[in-house]
Write a structure and sequence with these properties.
By secondary structure, the chain is of the alpha+beta class. The chain is built from 10 helices and 8 strands. Helix content is about 60%, strand content about 10%. Helix 2 (about 35-55) packs antiparallel against helix 10 and helix 5 crosses helix 7 (about 175-185). Keywords: Cell membrane, Membrane, Transmembrane, Transmembrane helix.
Amino acid sequence: MSIEVTKYQQDVTFPQQVADDEIDLRELFSVIWQGKWLIIAITAVFAIGSVLFAISQPNTYKSEALLAPADAEQGGGGLAALAGQFGGLASMAGINLGGKGGVDKTQMAIEVLKSRQFTSDFIQNHNLLPDLMAIKSWNMAENTIGYDDEMYLVNDNQWIREVQAPFKPEPSMQEAFKEFSKIVAVSTDKETGMVKISVEHLSPFIAQQWVNWLIQDINKVMKERDVAEAIKSTAFLESKIEQTNVADIRSILYKLIEEQAKTIMFAEVREEYVFKTIDPALVPEEKAGPKRALICVLGTMLGGMLAVMLVLIRHFVRKED
């Protein structure tokens, strides 16, 4: 008898719980419906605000170039071959030829391109700080740049922005690096190995110019690094030749010097040292941003969700009171 009563109680309780859930849902929709005008008003405010914000944002333009890694060995392949043949013998003379491992030259160039040191030198060498940190607008008809008068005086070439310590009126290279990293992108296609460099800027002409300068400078920097290393290695190898009388070791050392000479010669005769330009940067005709339609949609959706939450919170607070 007790089992039947318990079963009956469960059957009665379950429909009540379902009914309670249905009542809660109905109450929820009822609250939203009652607060529909407030929801509409808040959503409309956010929609209008997002439209005004989207309209106030200036157009940006993206210029990009497609690059291919240089095919030449630049001495690395020859050194690797010598390391495989005579590595043990050279180690007896205190010389480490290395192995086939190491960082890929293309990947190293990309990391150098992204580094703070390269970016700082790039900005200073080309005097990019005003066009990076103080630009306000671009005049398409006259192809002129407008700067923020509260930050930078063009005629006096003077920074006047008001900042708190430790910052100074003239932006530091750390600030410039953060801003530069936002508008410059370097990507590698894993399947083809192609490298793409892009710059997004208010001026399409500046965007194209910066891409070209980046390609020229990274090729120049990597060339200078390899030449300096080859010269230093040659001097070291020549000193080792003077210290040994073993014919086989001297033969290896002369071959190593020959490889270093090839590296220097290759660097002197080739401008595109690390990257070959496959598709050069152009002045973009169409804007890359901002995505005004997306800004308006997201702003309106955000306003609607906040309005619904506000109505529900207000209802439950009043209900508890």
